[in-house]
Amino acid sequence: MEASHGSGPAATPGSEHTLEQLVRGGLVATHFSPVVDLQSDTVIGHRVYHGVAGVPPEPAHFTAFRRAVRESEHVADLDASLRSLALREAEQLRLPRTNRLFMTAEPQALGTVEDRTAEPDRSAILQLHPDRIAQAPAMTLRSVRQARTLGWGIGMAEIGDDLRTTSFLPLVNPSVVMLRPSVLAIEDHVHLAELIRLLQAHVERTDAILVADGVTTEEDLLKAEALGARFGTGPWFGEPSQEPEAADPGETDVLADHHTRNQLAQGTPFTIAQGRERDPLVMDGEMLTAQLHSLAERSLAAGESAVVISVFADAEELSPETLARFESVADSVGYTVMLSAGFDTPPVPAARGGQIDTSDPLQAEFCVIVIGPDWSGLTVGKRRFSPGPDGRTEYDVHVTTERYACVDAARSVFTRIRTLH
């Protein structure tokens, strides 16, 4: 597909109009696909798709349309318009307020969400793609917090065919995790075992709900249940329709149990660890370096599902040993960050970077943070103003595996990461 940037070629196959013209001209159709509780066989809501009016509601068409939205230079405006269209359509169809809507969302459009605090809690769930989160983590995490404050639910979709897609689960903390349809076709039991372990860690910790997408056969249904899915959607339950039947979720709302921690992460890794009110360890530079390297090595065992963040204070150059270690980390884990006031571009090409200015307190800290769906760790050190008894440089060091401290520390650093264009 040759996607548009607002005024170029046709936005989707068979369309003579650009994407903007389609949206403004009312030529976009909204389709609703039932989402079913696998335990009660009850329709609890609908997944929302958009496409060109008059074009058959097929998955390939919906995918092409969404790709065109993502590739448009007006992605934020277009996605916001589609979101509003879906809500208007649901209201015109007289779908009850308890009928949950699962809507694909782009991070750029989260800053324009409407206030839904008067609606049932998380009655509309915005589903984010992991790749889009990785491109702009600072903006996404900031906007996710705002959207939750305004009454929106947050989900993640397209999860599971690659374990890297689970990397941001702890940071985004979605109430709904929707598996990619291709997961139901995976026959690699080693991959599935690892995926189930990672997903169950998130479910156990937060009471999130797993949704199996693309359920087509009874065999798919059995596999979805084996993967731990509570909800399902796909042809087995009904095709997308412009005139859906209203859902009746019943009296029990399983999504109400999800633990959403929506606090603003303020400070730096050191001040966040310090807030746990435990006395720091006092180490010399050699011992701190060994501690940081130990956690970085430990992250290699976490594999593709881990996020590893490293801060090197104001170091302009890193030792060959450190570079080699982080090259291995970047090759092994899902997402790697390297920050220092001494360099803007990470010396490891596969790592993400950002800028730490001279007034940023982060420039005085050395830390490694590892966030995985099933475990986390933080080591952070800050140079003491006064030397030790023998004149050596000493550091106050915090070492913790406390989940919230690690996640908050990671979120605080993500504010410095550049957005990929």
Key structural traits:
421 residues, alpha/beta, eight-stranded mixed β-barrel, six-stranded mixed β-sheet, 14 strands, disordered N terminus
Can you characterise this structure?
This protein has 421 residues and is of the alpha/beta class. The protein has helices at 19-24, 59-71, 75-92, 130-135, 137-149, 169-172, 189-206, 218-226, 269-274, 285-300, 320-332, 403-414; strands at residues 28-37, 42-52, 100-104, 124-128, 153-159, 176-179, 209-213, 231-233, 281-284, 307-312, 335-339, 365-371, 376-383, 394-400. The strands form two sheets. It has an eight-stranded mixed beta barrel with strand order 1-2-3-4-5-6-7-8, surrounded by four helices. A six-stranded mixed beta sheet has the order 9-14-13-12-10-11, with helices on both faces. It contains twelve helices and 14 strands.
